Amino acid sequence: MKLKAAFKFEIRDFLTTVFSVYGVMMLINIIAIVVQLASKNNFKTNMTLNGAEIILIVTVFIIAAGDFRENFQMLMQNGVSRKTIFISKAGTGLMFALILSIADRLFIFLSRIISDLAGVTKSTESVWIQIYPEFADKHNAVWSFIAFAAVGAAVYICSYMLGTVLSGLIYRLGKGGRTALAIALPVTAFVLVPLLLEIFWETAFVRWLIHTLVTILGLGKGIPYPAAATFTVLSCILGAASWLIIRRAVPKD
Amino acid sequence: MSGIELRGVSKRFKDVTALDNVTLNFEENKIYGLLGRNGAGKSTMLNIISNRLFPDEGEVLLDGQPVRENDMAQGQIFLISEKTLYPEKMKIKEAFKWTQEFYPDFDVEKARSLAEEFGLSDKKKVDSLSTGYETIFKVILALCVNVPYVFFDEPVLGLDANHRELFYKHLLTKYGEDPFTAVISTHLIEEVSNVIEEIVIIKRGKIIYNESRDELLGKGYTVSGNAGRVDSYIKGRDVIGTDSLGGLKTAYLLGRPDRGSMPEGLELTGMDLQKLFIQLTNE
Amino acid sequence: MKIDFEDERPIFQQIALGIEDAILTGAFEEEEQIPSITEFSVTYKINPATALKGINLLVDAGVLYKKRGVGMFVTEGAVMKLKEKRKEEFYDSYVRSLIEEAKKLGISGDEIIAMVARGYER
Question: Residue ranges of the HTH gntR-type domain (chain C) (predicted)?
Answer without folding.
Answer: 9-77
